[in-house]
Amino acid sequence: MPVSVWCQDAPAPKPVFEAASIKLDPKADGADSENTPGLLRAQMTLRRYIAYAYDVRDFQVKGGPNWIDSDHYAITAKLERVDPRRPGSIQLREALQTLLAERFQLKFHHESKEIGGYALMTAKGGFKLTPVADGGNHGTSSRGGLTRQLTATQVDMERVAAFLARETGSPVQDQTHIPGLYTFTLEWARDDRKSSSPEQPALPSLFVAIQEKLGLRLEGRKVPVDLLIIDSAAPPSEN
């Protein structure tokens, strides 16, 4: 009697870098990154690399020696292979996780804790945007400087909350319960800086802009956050 054998495809191997250069960069004074498919090129602190590798915000990475916030490292790394079936950014993050463990001897654990942050809620005057159809092009882009601008294309409220978390440097929890996708442009002034030109009206702060333009507000409160607690880390091994 024939016997049927069912075989499950083996899970895809975790991405790794075939070559990686790590150098201390004493001239760097900020965060800079550039990546193309299969290639990571960045100059950041270890804390920023950890946040990028595990797709969390800087405020979610706690502990560690002082040098992880002061020493900048230039990393250039190329993936051994690129899987066209998976997003390239995810493959780079996963490969960077292995690199940090091997070269920086990074060890950490997770903790859930309530910390000071914001709840994203509907403003008193009501939500002001109209949902758009899903056209397959989703994302956000922002412009820096004293005048800030966000261009959002077909994003949901969870994505808006994630952007606001980056801007405020604090966790933001979506509590709007608003479904759907939205496209909009938002402008505001960093630190409430006023324009010195009478022809250019002063822009509002971020908190005022989201209320006037989007019909949303940020309410300060304690929110639960998954924290990544560094147990140990060491300066990287030689290339």
Please tell me the overall pLDDT.
86
Tally of individual helices: 5
What is the overall silhouette?
A: globular
Tally of individual domains: 2
Q: Which stretches are poorly predicted, pLDDT < 50 over at least 5 residues? A: none
Indicate the radius of gyration in whole angstroms. 21 Å
- Helix-strand category: alpha+beta
Strand order of the largest sheet: 1-5-3-2
Give the strand content: 35-45%
Order of helices and strands: EEEHEHEHEEEHEEHE
Share of helical residues: 10-25%
Largest sheet: 4 strands, antiparallel
Note the gap between the termini: 59 Å
Strand count: 11
Description of the structure:
The chain has 239 residues and is α+β, with helices and mostly antiparallel strands. It has 2 domains: 17-104, no CATH class; 113-225, no CATH class. It has helices at residues 46-53, 67-70, 88-103, 157-168, 206-214; strands spanning 17-24, 32-36, 39-45, 61-63, 72-79, 107-122, 139-143, 147-155, 172-174, 182-189, 216-232. The strands form 3 sheets. The chain has a 4-stranded antiparallel beta sheet with strand order 1-5-3-2. The relative contact order is 0.20.
Short description:
With 239 residues, this protein is of the alpha+beta class.
